[in-house]
Amino acid sequence: MHIPRRALCAAALLAIAAAPLQAQTWPERPIKLITPSTPGGPPDAYARALADLLLKELGQPVVVENSPAVGGMVAAQVMTRTPADGYTLLVSTAGMMTITPNANPRARYVPADFTPICQGVEAGLVLASHPSLGTRNFADLAQWIKAQKTPPTYSSFAPGSPAHFLGYQLAEALKVEMTHVPYRSSPNQITDMVGGTAPLGFVQTATAGPQIKAGKLVAYATTAGQRSAELPDVPTVAEIGLPQLQTTVWFGLSAPKGLPAPIAQRLTAAHQKVLASPDFRQRMATSGLAPAAPLCGEAFLQQMNAESARWARIVKATGFVAD
């Protein structure tokens, strides 16, 4: 069937004219929020607290959908093919946005393929060990590492995670070789560290905090930019002379590329109101998370690009390729 060129042009103009009107009336139905984790994980905790409180700000339910496959890579790829109408949003994570595109050849996306809304919450990792090492501060630990006749091992809670690559940076800083032992979850890593099977590693604050407080693990530094409220006596990596190890595991809010500016602006305002809520902050604290720096839009994208460049160098240096 032949459609006159004039009719096609008219239809296109109508669609363009309708976009601002749709943005003005958005949202008119429930919103789906995809999170790259199983129920109960830290990204899921952020997603559900955000969803609950966005209802008040937007006047529509926000339904959380868990999509943990391949560390969130599948969820990210789905988002690159999703209409930019504001009805499907994504919990973006540091790993998904800045490490996976460098480490997994199947991840055919970069941060610029999304509309960045805002960075949400973050948590530093902790360099910790089993007490049997006999080291009480980082100077002692560095001396112990250098004294080993064979490369000492360090553990991470997942291959290709920030914990994995921070271990490489630690070895690089100390000018030694270390062997990476990856686990498939933070609880499994902590179990073996407390048992002494994995004597050293970069761990998540939420899972390791109770063990550190109980004296079952020794903490040397947090990778965050400031000391943790949960572990105030643990110095930052900058304080021990390793500022290049500073990093956080963060979660934020993103949307498909091409999201109309009025919708992005409304989401940004709503997200920041939620982050300022005492209820939200309390819920995040129970998961070991704290509000991140207020980076939204282009500033959020620039940070992701900078982190991606950092991890690209380290991924290449380690030769790591995700399964």
Walkthrough of the structure:
The protein has 11 helices and 10 strands. The chain is of the alpha/beta class. The chain folds into 2 domains: 29-122 and 249-318, Bordetella uptake gene, domain 1 (D-Maltodextrin-Binding Protein, domain 2, 3-Layer(aba) Sandwich); 124-245, 3-Layer(aba) Sandwich (D-Maltodextrin-Binding Protein, domain 2). The termini are far apart.
Mean of residue pLDDT values: 92
CATH architecture of the largest domain: 3-Layer(aba) Sandwich
CATH class of the largest domain: Alpha Beta
Based on CA atoms alone, the radius of gyration comes out at 22 Å
SSE topology:
Blueprint: H1 5-25, E1 31-35, H2 42-58, E2 62-66, H3 73-79, E3 88-93, H4 94-103, E4 114-129, H5 138-147, E5 153-156, H6 162-174, E6 179-182, H7 186-195, E7 200-204, H8 205-213, E8 218-222, E9 248-256, H9 261-275, H10 278-285, E10 290-291, H11 298-318
Parallel strand pairs: 1-2, 1-3, 5-6
Antiparallel strand pairs: 3-9, 4-7, 4-8, 4-9, 4-10
Helix pairs in contact: 2-9, 4-11
Structure described in brief:
The chain is α/β, with parallel strands linked by helices and 323 residues long. 44% of the residues lie in helices and 19% in strands.
For this entry, give a set of tags.
globular, 323 residues, alpha/beta, D-Maltodextrin-Binding Protein, domain 2, 11 helices, 44% helix, 8-stranded mixed beta sheet, single chain, two-stranded parallel sheet
